[in-house]
């Protein structure tokens, strides 16, 4: 039993609450303060809850109806709703308490899994509608998360935060799918899926509760509905950054669901799929740890290039053979390379947002613009996937499709190198405009 305080909180939680109210000097010395650590905890809860069931939602849809189309439409609607939610909710986050948007995102994620439980095997008929609910959930959460992340980090500790975020996400992504695969394989299929969807629902509710220990944060000023359009017209840095984000999204939109599905189709085993994510996420965890420990901001361009080359080149494995072995080699390679690709890109884009005082005031609009870039690429990739698979699902057609979409990281690096050329990070972690 926790010792109770007069306020009714357990003593340990009261202490945590009080420590979060105190300003920390960590932001200025390259360390993470209490608010940053608590945000990381909320982040890992959200990602772990999603990882517990996220991959298996697609498998569940496939088992009900063995077609790519419902899964692709579900994913497309998720990204469409997410993008629109970012844009529409931006006004709320700019004018009011953004923490309520973060909590709403977690609550809607819980609602999504409740709907999946209620619908059961009828879920395929409502795949697109469920995608819209999922999209609104992730839109609310990630909009608020990214704005708060920007506010509590700076150029001196942003790479460290991203390294830890990736490390913890890899940990959750490593353990959660394995647990899901184990539970499903030890129970009848229906009961196993019902259990993991219920566990995800519970974790999202816990995340909502924990989020109340984050400070209430309000933004100032009015929300500009056309900010993204004007920024792309007037700012070359953001045009290139938008192209890079779209290149990243091009790959993520399709690979986000097709790889796990290919593993299940090849093995017909949820336990093997859980083992796959256990192994590949463990590799990613080690890579994120290394990036967080040794990565230097001045090396961003070449570190990102290494990651992009591996991620794009490894796709050629599928021209040789599509099997569990080749998929595992692919997953291990991507696990190693993705942190090299993503951490420099995330940090640089957020450095752009904080390039000057005027830019920082429009942080909400810039976060919306960032999401527009990612979702534009994701939706283009999924629409191309739907178009190609409507004509042919032959192995050669799918291989070429995956190969071309897999070039997205190289497109992203080509665009980001233009941004790297304009944005310099000095040895002390500060930033200056290189134009």
UniProtKB/TrEMBL annotation:
Highest rank taxon of the organism: Bacteria
InterPro entries tied to this protein: MFS, MFS_trans_sf, Sugar_transport-like
Q: Does the keyword Transmembrane helix apply?
A: yes
Is Transmembrane helix tagged as a keyword?
A: yes
- Which SUPFAM superfamilies is this protein grouped with? MFS general substrate transporter
The GO terms this record gives for MF are:
transmembrane transporter activity
Compartment(s) of residence: Cell membrane
What this protein is called in its record is MFS transporter, YQGE family, putative transporter
Organism equals Brevibacillus centrosporus
Q: What is the lineage of its organism?
A: Bacteria, Bacillati, Bacillota, Bacilli, Bacillales
């Amino acid at each position: 039993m926790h010792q109770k305080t007069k306020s009714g909180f357990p003593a340990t939680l009261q202490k945590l609450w009080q420590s979060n109210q105190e300003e920390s000097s960590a932001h200025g010395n390259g360390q993470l303060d209490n608010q940053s650590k608590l945000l990381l905890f909320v982040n890992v809860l959200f990602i772990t809850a999603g990882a517990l069931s996220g991959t298996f939602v697609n498998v569940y849809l496939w088992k009900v109806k063995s077609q790519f189309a419902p899964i692709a439409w579900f994913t497309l609607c998720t990204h469409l709703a997410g993008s629109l939610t970012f844009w529409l909710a931006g006004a709320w986050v700019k004018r009011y308490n953004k923490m309520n948007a973060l909590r709403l995102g977690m609550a809607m994620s819980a609602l999504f899994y409740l709907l999946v439980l209620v619908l059961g095997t009828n879920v395929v008929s409502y795949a697109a509608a469920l995608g819209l609910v999922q999209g609104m959930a992730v839109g609310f959460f990630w909009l608020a998360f990214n704005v708060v992340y920007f506010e509590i980090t700076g150029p001196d500790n942003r790479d460290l935060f991203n390294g830890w975020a990736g490390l913890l996400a890899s940990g959750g992504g490593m353990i959660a799918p394995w647990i899901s695969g184990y539970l499903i394989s030890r129970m009848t299929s229906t009961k196993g899926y019902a259990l993991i969807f219920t566990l995800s629902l519970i974790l999202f509710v816990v995340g909502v509760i924990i989020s109340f220990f984050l400070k209430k944060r309000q933004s100032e000023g009015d929300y500009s509905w056309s900010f993204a359009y004007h920024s792309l017209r007037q700012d070359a840095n953001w045009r290139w950054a938008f192209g890079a984000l779209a290149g990243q999204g091009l790959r993520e939109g399709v690979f986000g669901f097709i790889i796990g599905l290919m593993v299940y189709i090849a093995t017909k085993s949820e336990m093997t799929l859980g083992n796959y994510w256990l192994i590949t996420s463990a590799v990613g965890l080690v890579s994120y740890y290394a990036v967080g420990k040794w990565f230097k901001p001045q090396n961003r361009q070449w570190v990102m290039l290494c990651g992009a080359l591996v991620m794009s080149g490894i796709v050629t494995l599928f021209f040789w053979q599509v099997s569990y072995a080749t998929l595992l080699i692919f997953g291990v390679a991507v696990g190693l390379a993705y942190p090299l690709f993503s951490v420099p890109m995330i940090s640089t884009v957020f450095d752009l947002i904080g390039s000057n005082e005027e830019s920082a005031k429009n942080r909400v609009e810039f976060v919306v613009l960032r999401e527009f870039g990612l979702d534009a690429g994701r939706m283009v990739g999924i629409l191309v996937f739907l178009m190609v698979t409507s004509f042919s699902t032959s192995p050669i057609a799918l291989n070429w499709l995956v190969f071309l979409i897999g070039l997205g990281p190289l497109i992203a690096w080509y665009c980001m190198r233009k941004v790297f050329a304009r944005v310099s990070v000095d040895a002390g972690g500060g930033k200056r405009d290189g134009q």
